[in-house]
Design goal:
With about 290 residues, this protein is mainly α. Helices cover about 40% and strands about 5% of the residues.
Length: about 290
């Protein structure tokens, strides 16, 4: 009987240890960012492409107010309501962080305290970013205004308020490569769409656990607000030319002389600041992506 109890205890310890290992945080190597020097001018373009101000800046504010990244925007979901945090360079934001901590947040979804971030923060896409671009973004964000506004806690019911389980979620959904591969995938456009601009986060449907259904990549999805849907932008539904798409990303005007609305207004506010070659690269990628009917 004693041997049986010891064996059961040993098995239990192994199960617990295995479970803790599976839900652990996975961070970058300690020296991954040590040799990187950020370029704030280059970081301004990463900031624009990523649309950071649309989630963290003052909604509907002036250009200066949009750059006060106090957060507080509500993101409704099937799992509860998430609130975007203060990411300004203040003590209430991320002013006390190091570049290493910022990089771990961006590409690993791990906080400086070693906790998992919820994937309402699109680190699934950002995990594909080059660390030099992360360093450039970090350098630019240090130049922005400070805000002392405290970050608002998320409003999530049990069990979604338990962050540890996100370790298992990451094992299932964190990508180990690009969605679109092969010679037909425009490299620059793929980097912008799949990583920095995280277009798939809105335009791709999700499964019951909130993971992207990549077989329907960019094929449209329900609007998280519950009003309407996010459109299918693959060639299976969007018949615009690459030039039409590039112009839309610059001006907000469609080929039918309509104008962008909803959250695309903020997206285009960012893409309009990019070099013309980058907008064309995004357009070329969208035209090359497999059609979803």
């Amino acid at each position: 009987m004693k041997k049986l109890l010891l064996a059961a205890l040993l098995i239990a310890l192994i199960v617990v240890a295995g479970g803790l290992w599976l839900i652990r945080t996975n961070t970058l190597a300690p020296d991954a960012t040590a040799s990187l020097d950020g370029d704030a001018d280059a970081g301004a373009l990463i900031f624009a492409a990523g649309g950071c101000a649309s989630c963290h800046g003052t909604e509907g504010g002036s250009e200066e107010e949009r750059l006060v990244l106090a957060g507080g925007h509500a993101i409704d979901s099937d799992f509860g309501t998430f609130y975007t945090p203060n990411i300004s360079p203040s003590e209430a934001g991320i002013g006390a962080w190091s570049l290493e901590e910022f990089a771990n947040a961006m590409v690993r979804g791990v906080s400086p305290e070693g906790q998992h971030y919820y994937p309402a923060f699109p680190y699934v896409a950002y995990s594909r970013m080059e660390l030099q671009d992360v360093a450039d973004l970090w350098a630019y964000m240090q130049t922005l205004p400070e805000s002392d506004t405290a970050s608002r806690p998320h409003d999530l019911p049990f069990p979604f308020n338990m962050r540890r389980g996100l370790g298992l979620w990451k094992l299932r959904y964190m990508p180990d490569g690009w969605v679109m591969t092969g010679e037909d995938s425009p490299e620059r456009g793929r980097y912008l769409v799949e990583a920095v601009a995280h277009c798939g986060e809105c335009h791709t449907p999700r499964d019951e656990l909130g993971g992207l259904i990549t077989v329907d990549w960019l094929g449209g999805a329900p609007n998280p607000s519950g009003e309407g849907s996010i459109p299918n932008i693959t060639p299976g539904a969007l018949d615009w030319s690459a030039e039409d798409i590039a112009y839309y990303l610059e001006s907000g005007f469609t080929p039918d002389f309509d104008t962008a609305g909803g959250s695309m207004v903020d997206v285009i506010h960012g893409t309009s600041q990019l070099p013309a070659d980058d907008r064309q690269a995004i357009a070329d990628y969208v035209k090359a992506v497999p059609a979803v009917e």
